[in-house]
Amino acid sequence: MAALGWLTPRRRSATARSVLAGEASAEAARKSTQEAQDALDTQDTLDASDREPQFPVHGDALAAAFFDLDNTVMQGAALFHFGRGLYKRKFFETRDLVRFAWQQAWFRLAGVEDPEHMQEARDSALSIVQGHRVAELMSIGEEIYDEYMAERIWPGTRALAQAHLDAGQKVWLVTAAPVEIAQVIARRLGLTGALGTVAESVDGVYTGKLVGEPLHGPAKAEAVRALAAAENLDLSRCAAYSDSHNDIPMLSLVGHPYAINPDTKLRKHAHKLDWRLRDYRTGRKAAKVGIPAAAGVGAVAGGTAAAIALSRRRR
Asked: pLDDT digit string (tens) for 149-194?
């Protein structure tokens, strides 16, 4: 895959490929959500509270929340964890695992997205999955979530997402990770759905190409815009959460942007515009700008719930 100009850190407007990637991701997300809802509707034994997890019963029906995944909802990068799981299943060789491990180590230490590393990881992932069936990767993704991702979810961010759900709002992941993996994570966290990078498939088999480009930077903003239009949402009443300055286009779309575990550039930008901040990477409390008290309480509750769930899972 040739080097992509959109991966450079400078800000710029969305390109035609960004729009294509965003629209494709929004369509995949809506299709997956509708299929999940159809499956729920067939289960007559469910009670009313189980039938309506994705649509507001109360609160603002025109609002929703959009969460970046890597280093916002989960420690590290989903694509790297996915690579570890594929290696365990002998999808590729040891030298490829070493490259994945180095990229993940750099990402965790730096706490920011390096364009070259991210592009290399995506190129590797595309070559690895080429020729495999979509259904196969979805099934494997469920296993990899339990093995490598479940214990890396930030309880504080998870609590913020739950607060939106409890208010009757839909909550979406928005990530450059493959949309199939993003959908697995969203489902396991009880979220509404996911916007992610759409890999081309023909008759259910990956071709090794992307539809448009990875859902990154301006493409994320286009995906959120497209989904909001399709869902009749008012973006000025929506919230978005991210750790990266690369997501400033997405954060700038909504009326309630949050910087979560922010990198240096995003932190400065958030302070300048009086955006809300939250940092779950250390025991110290990050500088807070207009954080509702309920968010802090929710983080404690989320951490307690996560600890109980992990304890039960290990038994």
From this structure: 999 999 999 999 999 999 999 999 999 888 999 999 999 999 999 9
To the nearest 10°, the Cα dihedral for 118, 120, 126, 128? -120
- Is 203 tagged catalytic? no
Known catalytic residue at 234: no
DSSP summary character for residue 74: B
Please compute, for residue 310, the number of CA atoms within 13 A of its CA located in the half-sphere on the CB side. Answer: 15
SS (H, E, C) 131-189: CCEHHHHHHHHHHHHHHHHHHHECHHHHHHHHHHHHCCCEEEEEEEEEHHHHHHHHHHC
Residue 67 has pLDDT above 70, yes or no: yes
In the prediction, which pLDDT does 82 show? 86
Distance between CA atoms of residues 277 and 259, nearest Å: 5
The confidence band for 259, taking pLDDT boundaries of 50, 70 and 90, is very high
Instruction: Specify the pairing of strand 170-178 against strand 193-197.
Output: parallel
* Catalytic residue (one of 41, 68, 114, 279): 68
Q: In the chain, pLDDT over 90 holds for what percent of residues? A: 42
Give the dihedral sign, CA 307/308/313/315: positive
Q: What distance lies between CA 116 and its chain's CA centroid?
A: 20
297 within 8 A of 277, measured Cβ to Cβ: no
**Catalytic annotation, pick one of 38, 70, 146, 234:** 70
